C-alpha cells in the first residue's frame, strides 16, 4: 500500500513539474513577406535535404534487391 501511494504521488509530482519546465518560448513569428521580411515558411533550405533522402532511399532499395537476388542465386546453386 505504501509503495503504491509513493508511486502515485511521484507520478503526480512529475506531471505537475514537467508542465512548468519549458526550456524557452516559441520564436517570434516571421515578418510580413510583402514588406521585405523573410519568407512565410522561414528560410530553411529543403531542396538538398530531399535530394539526400531520395539518394539514401534508392541506395537502400538497391541493396535490398541485390541481397534478394544473391540469396536466390545461392539457393539455386545449392539445389543443383
Structural overview:
This protein is 65% helix and 0% strand. It is mostly helical. The model has no long low-confidence stretch (mean pLDDT 79).
Distance between the termini: 68 Å
**Fraction of residues in helices?**
55-70%
> What are the secondary-structure elements, in order, as H or E?
HH
What general outline do the C-alpha atoms trace? Answer: flat
* Cα radius of gyration in angstroms: 28 Å
Q: Given the structure, what is the number of helices?
A: 2
Structural class: mainly alpha
Q: Tell me what portion of residues adopts beta-strand conformation.
A: under 5%
Integer average pLDDT? 79
Low-pLDDT ranges: none
Q: How many E-type strands? A: 0
For the report, how would you describe the main beta sheet?
A: none
Sequence-ordered SSE layout with sheet pairings:
Blueprint: H1 2-20, H2 47-79
Summarize, please:
This protein has 80 residues and is mainly α.
Keywords:
2 helices, flat, single chain, 80 residues, 65% helix, mainly alpha
Amino acid at each position: 500500500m505504501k509503495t503504491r501511494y509513493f508511486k502515485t504521488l511521484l507520478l503526480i509530482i512529475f506531471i505537475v513539474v514537467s508542465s512548468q519546465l519549458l526550456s524557452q518560448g516559441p520564436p517570434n513569428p516571421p515578418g510580413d513577406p510583402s514588406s521585405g521580411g523573410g519568407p512565410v515558411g522561414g528560410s530553411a533550405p529543403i531542396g538538398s535535404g530531399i535530394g539526400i533522402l531520395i539518394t539514401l532511399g534508392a541506395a537502400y532499395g538497391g541493396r535490398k534487391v541485390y541481397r534478394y537476388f544473391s540469396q536466390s542465386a545461392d539457393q539455386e546453386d545449392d539445389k543443383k
